[in-house]
């Protein structure tokens, strides 16, 4: 018997009002216990009904995600955090006021309604209240709350467009909701608020400096974010090689003029080079050169990082060299992703 591959329907939802019927269609799949790729302002999510165990299990299967890696629960109104979490931190309201809805995910102790499948056996759950109105409308229409990890296959760069989702998930899920390219392009910043001093678990869309203005006692230990050997990670997802394109990545950090010079001296002209717009002129003879936009504002770099790593996957190349941004603001989050993509192949100049 020939098993027919699932047809993946791509439905356009960029305009909340004009495309509302497609939001309803996507929500119908979710109500039936199916997995649907949905847009958010950070990256696309692979969504399912948080309270349907079979649907939740499908996410792990589709992504190839290890069972010990918990899922974030996405809500569409603030009160819902109290439905699924307990022991809410005394400073939480300040954080809600400053960042919600928005690209900060908060971790609290979970109530029993959140299953061990969702939390991967942890006592806590991560709650994400997206800024994207389309994302919130999808959750609302589904009539439930949605678990959603990033919509990439495990280990691959996160997906920031419907095309990326299609490349990873075509034939594996019934529906992709296409909201256009994600406006931020990096995943949410994750803060663990289940301990007296909140801990930054993942730098992300909202910069550390902005978070510190609201949580001055935020604990940020860089070595917490990369886990070696048998250590138990705070956020289980951190122990896996991540964001990796097929070709090996070398990340080059330091003064911009010097890193550009280093790449020029070390890369072959057939290798891919990802650098800031100001240095494109150094790589005129190179076949595959991609711009991260200007280093003066890193918004474009954030939006393009995953997309460019994925572009490189379309080429038959043996190596990717990336010029690192400065390690502050969004640059800190971009470097975090690129360090993982490079599996530690980092040159400091
Ligand atoms: O921007 C985002 O956060 C996107 C969009 C789709 O909302 N979602 C996302 O999910 O990036 P995911 O699963 O790819 O990354 C969530 C990270 C993982 O590293 C996971 O291990 C960690 O958060 N995490 C989830 N629940 C946790 C918990 N209860 N305690 C500690 N870490 C947790
Ligand atoms: Mg992810």
From TrEMBL:
Cell compartment(s), UniProt: Cytoplasm
Signal peptide start-end: none
One Gene Ontology biological process: regulation of translational fidelity
EC number: 2.7.7.87
Residue ranges of domain YrdC-like in the record: 20-206
Catalytic activity: L-threonine + hydrogencarbonate + ATP = L-threonylcarbamoyladenylate + diphosphate + H2O
Domain of life: Bacteria
MF terms (GO), sorted A to Z: ATP binding; double-stranded RNA binding; L-threonylcarbamoyladenylate synthase; tRNA binding
Keywords: ATP-binding, Cytoplasm, Nucleotide-binding, Nucleotidyltransferase, Transferase, tRNA processing
Binding residues annotated for L-threonine, in chain numbering: 42, 74, 128, 148, 188
Function in brief: Required for the formation of a threonylcarbamoyl group on adenosine at position 37 (t(6)A37) in tRNAs that read codons beginning with adenine.
Family: Belongs to the SUA5 family.
Protein name: Threonylcarbamoyl-AMP synthase
The organism of origin for this protein: Clostridium ljungdahlii (strain ATCC 55383 / DSM 13528 / PETC)
Chain's gene name: ywlC_2
């Amino acid at each position: 018997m020939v098993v027919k591959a699932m047809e993946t329907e791509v439905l356009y939802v960029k305009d909340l009002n004009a495309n509302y019927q497609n939001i309803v269609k996507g929500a119908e799949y979710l109500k039936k216990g199916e997995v649907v790729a949905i847009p958010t302002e950070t990256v696309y999510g692979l969504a399912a009904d948080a309270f349907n165990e079979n649907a939740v299990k499908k996410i792990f299967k589709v992504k190839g995600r290890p069972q010990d890696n918990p899922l974030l629960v996405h809500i569409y109104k603030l009160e819902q955090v109290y439905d699924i979490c307990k022991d809410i931190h005394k400073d939480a309201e300040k954080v809600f006021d400053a960042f919600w809805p928005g690209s900060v995910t908060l971790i609290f102790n979970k109530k029993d309604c959140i299953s061990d499948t969702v939390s991967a056996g942890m006592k806590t759950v991560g709650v994400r209240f997206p800024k994207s109105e389309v994302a919130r409308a999808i959750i609302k229409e589904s009539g439930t709350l949605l678990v959603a990890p990033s919509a990439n296959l495990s280990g691959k760069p996160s997906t920031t467009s419907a095309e990326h989702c299609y490349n990873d998930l075509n034939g594996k899920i019934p529906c992709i909701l296409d909201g256009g390219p994600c406006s931020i392009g990096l995943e949410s910043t994750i803060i663990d608020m289940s301990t007296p001093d909140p801990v930054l678990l993942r730098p992300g869309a909202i910069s550390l400096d902005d978070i510190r203005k609201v949580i001055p006692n935020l604990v940020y230990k860089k070595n917490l974010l990369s886990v070696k050997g048998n250590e138990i990670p705070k956020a289980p997802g951190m122990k896996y090689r991540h964001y990796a394109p097929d070709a090996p990545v070398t990340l080059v950090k330091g003064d911009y003029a010097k890193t550009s010079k280093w790449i020029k001296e070390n890369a072959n002209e057939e290798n891919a080079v990802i650098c800031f717009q100001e240095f494109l002129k150094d790589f005129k003879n190179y076949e595959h050169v991609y711009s991260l936009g200007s280093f003066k504002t890193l918004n474009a770099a954030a939006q393009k990082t995953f997309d460019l790593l994925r572009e490189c996957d379309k080429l038959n190349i043996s190596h990717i060299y990336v010029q690192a941004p400065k390690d502050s603001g969004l640059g800190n989050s971009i470097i975090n992703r690129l360090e993982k993509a490079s599996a530690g192949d980092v040159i400091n100049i």
